[in-house]
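Lab channel / #folding
Pinned by the channel admin:
"Please post every new chain as: sequence first, then the structure tokens as a reply. Keep commentary short and put observations after the output so the thread stays searchable."

First post following the new format, from NK:
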Amino acid sequence: MREEYLDVEEKELIESFNSVELQGLEPPARDEQAKIKDAARRFIKKETKMNIRIDQDELEKIKKFARNEGLKYQTLVKSVLHKYITGQLVEKRKVG
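Reply from TO:
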């Protein structure tokens, strides 16, 4: 990693990490390791790739909307799908 591309906070983080003395630290006991691994398995969700076909004009609209929101379009699509299947996506009703 080239240091000229790091900001001050990143440089401080690297310096802090490198200053930690690891000698003398004991690894967790086996039962504690098992608990940590189990917690990690429950926390980390496995993701699967999905391919879909979509109209080019619709994809361009999605990409434009995502750019305006400061997101990657795949992240936007994933978020919308998640909200839909969890009941968090609420349709705006036009009054009038």
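NK: The chain has a mean pLDDT of 88.
TO: also worth noting, The first helix runs from residue 8 to 18.
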